[in-house]
Amino acid sequence: MLYDSLIDKFKDDFIEKDRWKWVLEGLRNTLLISMAAVLIGIVIGILIATVRTTYDKNGPSIRMKSPVAFFFLRVGNFLAHLYLTVIRGTPVVVQLLIMYFLVFASASDGVMVAIFAFGINSGAYVAEIFRSGIMSVDEGQFEAGRAMGLSYLQTMIYIIIPQCFKTVLPTLCNEFIVLLKETSIAGYVGIMDLTKAGDLIRGRTFDAFLPLIVVALLYLIMVVVLTKLVGRLERRLRKNERGA
Amino acid sequence: MQNTNKEAQETPLDAVIDGRKKKGLHMKNMKRIMALLLCGILLLAGVTVLASCGKESNKLVMATNASFPPYEYKEGDNFEGIDIEIAKKIAEKLGMELEIQDVEFGSIIGGVSSGKYDMGMAGMTVTEDRLKNVNFSTSYAKGIQACIVKADSEYASVDDFFNLDADGNWVSVKDGVKVGVQQDTTGDIYCSDTVENFGFGEENVTRYKTGNDAVAALVAGKVTVVIIDDQPAKSYVAANEGLKILETEYTNEDYAICVAKNNDELLGKINKALADLTADGTIAGIIAKYIKE
């Protein structure tokens, strides 16, 4: 009896009028937005983190060598601070709405706007994650790199960033998970994401149970897969460690 | 001193037995905690059920989505609008106290059919899908789906959005026509249908959470037209510079109140009240108060 009605509900929710296509499109958009936003977030994050740690660690020595370079660094550091304050100080829904209705008012592709909005938002958090990673690498590593004759940038790229990446990976993964779930607010600007797809089905069939449960399960599956992948990556990166 | 030391001395076996005992005790504790937790959950569930039973009081709970002027909207802390005033009059006739719940439009029917709310009143038109889940009262107002466009729009009538065949039937949507609607409203349901069913096709429709957002998207140029009930449309056009309503309507239909399928008693009472309120001109008066032609 209960089973039959559940089957009926399922048919009504997903089979009839091809409503499963909404879920599929929603899934596609959710994945697309989160993946692209993660990439943008990492690029922004590394840039901001580099500027901030350079200022904090090497500010005085750069100041002595070249006052001009120090000036630019200072401006960069100020802008980074401003960016972090604004982005972390406002809710992501508000940022998304501002992006959609004000900043990119003329863009009609909501998905692109959402990618930028979430990417820029994520960048702020990723920046702090990377900063903590860079700061955690022992000063001696840096000194050793420079003593070996590597330039500042080379030391960063070949010695510091790889070590810091390993440290920040779990936190970074955490940020991806948060971002993936945060995209569920994309419906506010008319984008068909996974949550919105469930919402639409709910609005059409007036059945709350199945659409919500299915949407929840899909998010859960995505997060579990992501966690597994990152876990595997972590193990691979640990290979060079002693005793591992 | 000596004595206590002797007592404290344990053989290895004793230690093992003692360990087991302790483990057993630990398990027992765990079980006890689990049982307590379960009791707590059951108690909570019971209280919730009781609380929902307690709703059987003299309250008439109405679900609406208060972003649909002039039918329902918020003015400060109060709900105002045609639906709200009519609902108050109905509650008065029924001798009940009206309680208004502001929820998302798409959640109204689900909530009404599950008994969470007694009735839903939100400028709602009768559709086949909705009738599968709830019953509707007699109609109390007319709903027209109007098209809002920019004042300098190249589109002058509903037909302009479509490529027509020789007989003037809609064949396909013209390139570049993007429709904005409020999610789950009649406008959304009709517009996102295929062209054969007099819609614009899923791919040409963007659904916004509120009518406000849809109009904001129109002003920003993200959509070419917003299709929404004509009374809110008038309010939106009045509030925003550079917008107009097309003279031809997209559809023309009736608003009604929805009640749970098994609640024929309430439906009868509401219909009776609506008939009385129509007969004595109360409803016409309320509508005239909000809509000045």
Shape of chain A: elongated
Q: What's the CATH class label of the largest domain in chain B?
A: Alpha Beta
Biggest contact: A-B, 21 and 28 residues
User: Which fold does the CATH topology of chain A refer to?
Assistant: MetI-like fold
- How many alpha or pi helices of chain A? 9
Label the CATH architecture of chain A: Orthogonal Bundle
Give a short account of the largest sheet of chain B: 10 strands, mixed
Number of strands of chain A: 0
Integer tally of domains of chain A: 1
Strand-residue proportion of chain B: 25-35%
How much helicity do the residues of chain A have? over 70%
* Oligomeric state of this protein: heterodimer
Number of discrete helical segments of chain B: 10
- Strand elements of chain B, count: 15
- Give me the CATH fold name of the largest domain in chain B: D-Maltodextrin-Binding Protein, domain 2
What pattern of helices and strands is seen along the backbone of chain B? HHEEEEHEHEHEEEEEHEHEHEEHH
Q: Approximately how much helix is present in the residues of chain B?
A: 40-55%
Please state the overall shape of chain B, judged from the principal axes of the Cα atoms.
globular
